[in-house]
């Protein structure tokens, strides 16, 4: 018997590069109209992971020709000062998108800050107005990671229409909005969606039914081969640092899926790193360009 072929690796890096090429053409067209997309990124404090994310976002802006406005504030910044800055950015016509990097220091109310951003500049898609528009199926800024997952599926040939999509994780950032996206009518949607979480009973029985399984639970290698069926398509959103003394850094990055074990059964799977991660920043850029286009009208 011939050896079983491994799964297709869904490269977020490759898909992100394709989308960025499309964006560069759109940005060039906007610049001919004297309109340059502008993204303000606000970082409060010195969280190492946040600093890496913000640096990558600014580098991508530079690569694509998007104006990046950096606002780095100390950790002891008051909530009032941060809200005043957001009010100024809301009123600035050069700024089309506003992103406040989470998490914020504990003395600042994150939801109050998100609510203060103009919904038409909310390129993260977290404002309650955009959350409501998403649930209603109205045009809106889509949250970047869920939108990236949807793009990965569609551009890799795994249309969710008619499929059973199981999402492991119910966060406001990934699980809930992704469920709303995949169940919408139309392209990229029309899936039957089940959302599982830490209180779900008989979890493996449900994940074994998935045609498409999205893992976003924040636990390293949580999804094992026994939890999935043959031919499943896996989108692994998790990024976890686990100790690895064989590495110079002392750690390695792994997803929420046991890649080695699950790969033996999966039809297709995203790697970690190089899967969903590059898509999140790219979808942020896509939202920023859309915001500029809308402002230009």
Q: Your description of this structure?
A:
With about 300 residues, the protein is an alpha/beta fold. The protein folds into two domains: about 35-120, Leucine Dehydrogenase, chain A, domain 1 (Rossmann fold, 3-Layer(aba) Sandwich), CATH 3.40.50.10860; about 145-280, Rossmann fold (3-Layer(aba) Sandwich). It is built from ten helices and eleven strands. The strands form three sheets. A six-stranded parallel β-sheet has the order 1-11-8-7-5-6. Strands 3-2-4 form a three-stranded parallel β-sheet, sandwiched between helices. The longest helix has 21 residues, at about 10-30. The chain is globular, with a radius of gyration of 20 Å.
Produce a short descriptive summary.
The protein is of the alpha/beta class and 297 residues long. It is built from ten helices and eleven strands. A hairpin with a 7-residue loop joins strand 9 (240-243) and strand 10 (251-254).
* Sheet of most strands: 6 strands, parallel
- Helix % is 25-40%
Quickly count the domains.
2
Q: Give average pLDDT, whole number.
A: 94
> What's the oligomerization state?
single chain
CATH class of the largest domain, please?
Alpha Beta
CATH architecture of the largest domain: 3-Layer(aba) Sandwich
CATH superfamily of the largest domain: NAD(P)-binding Rossmann-like Domain
Question: Which geometry do the CA atoms define?
Answer: globular
Q: State the end-to-end distance.
A: 61 Å
Beta percentage is: 15-25%
Q: What is the H/E order?
A: EHEHEHEHHHEHEHEEEEHEH
The rounded Rg comes to 20 Å
